[in-house]
Amino acid sequence: MAFDNLLLQLLLKASQDKGFVCEEADRALNAMVKSMTPLPLLNKLRPYVSHSNPRVRAKAAITISNSVSKMGLEGMNEFGLVLLVQMAADLLNDRLPEAREAARNIVTCIYEAYNPKRGTEAGIMAKLLPN
């Protein structure tokens, strides 16, 4: 419960306009991604993809994208590929471009996990696709 409150506060602070506060909260979220295994973090972040605040959704999406990029196919399967694709699909229609970009990155990570030899092509294609 305490971790859930901390995560919500970090997402709220990271979505503020105040530069220093936002940067520090972003730094803390990135440290979480680096220090935690992706599966528990994804489970904690999942509810925030549908948060009422669009900036919180975008920050959660970016953090999820960063976590998914650390996972292999086995980890994605363990979390649930259908769930990942559903989250990405919902975020592709988000109002904020940061959330849409994070969704594209999630889909690219899934594609690269399934097609490791063609991963660099997927990265190039993702950059070429229109926003």
| CATH C-level | Mainly Alpha
Helicity level: over 70%
CATH superfamily: Leucine-rich Repeat Variant
Radius of gyration: 14 Å
Helix/strand structural class:
mainly alpha
Quickly count the domains. 1
Number of helices: 8
Identify the overall geometry.
globular
Relative strand content = under 5%
- What is the annotated CATH architecture? Alpha Horseshoe
Residue stretches low in confidence (pLDDT < 50, at least 5 long) are none
Number of strands: 0
User: Biggest sheet, open or closed, and with what strands and sense?
Assistant: none
| End-to-end C-alpha gap | 37 Å
Integer average pLDDT: 90
- The helix/strand order is HHHHHHHH
Organism: Salix udensis
GO molecular function: microtubule binding
Protein name: TOG domain-containing protein
Summary tags:
131 residues, mainly alpha, Leucine-rich Repeat Variant, globular
